[in-house]
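Lab notebook: predicted structure, single chain.

Context: the supervisor wants predicted structures on file for every construct in the current expression panel, including those that have not yet been purified. This is the next one on the list. No modifications to the sequence; it matches the entry in the shared construct table.
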Amino acid sequence: MKKIITLFILTICTIGFGQNIKKTELIGKWTTNDLIIDFGDTKPKNENIIRELKKGFLNSEFDFRENGKFYIKFPNDKPTFMGELAFLNDRNWKLENNQIKVGTKEDNYNLMHILVQKANGKIYFIIPGMRLEMNKR
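Prediction complete. Output recorded below exactly as produced.
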């Protein structure tokens, strides 16, 4: 129930205080400059997991191509388990209400959802439990 409430609040904040993002603004390569990880009450008991997530996502690259294809690239020293996310490469992406949806028509674009927030001149990608500050290259 707390997860639902948290997602609801994030959605309201994004819609209420953020600005609408256009697909043309997203096309290109984005690099993670900074990130905040907060799982709330569902925080992993092992702090090492949080450190590994930070290591894997910091300086990662999200590539949204004009042809609708999505690619994600992690740093070379990424944790081993981050390699499992390679299945997201060469999938399709679309933008609906400031939310990027990655997948295919068959899976209803449900492989990955990223809320996009524009605030204080910065762009943030919000993935459940993480807020990534992004820079477009």
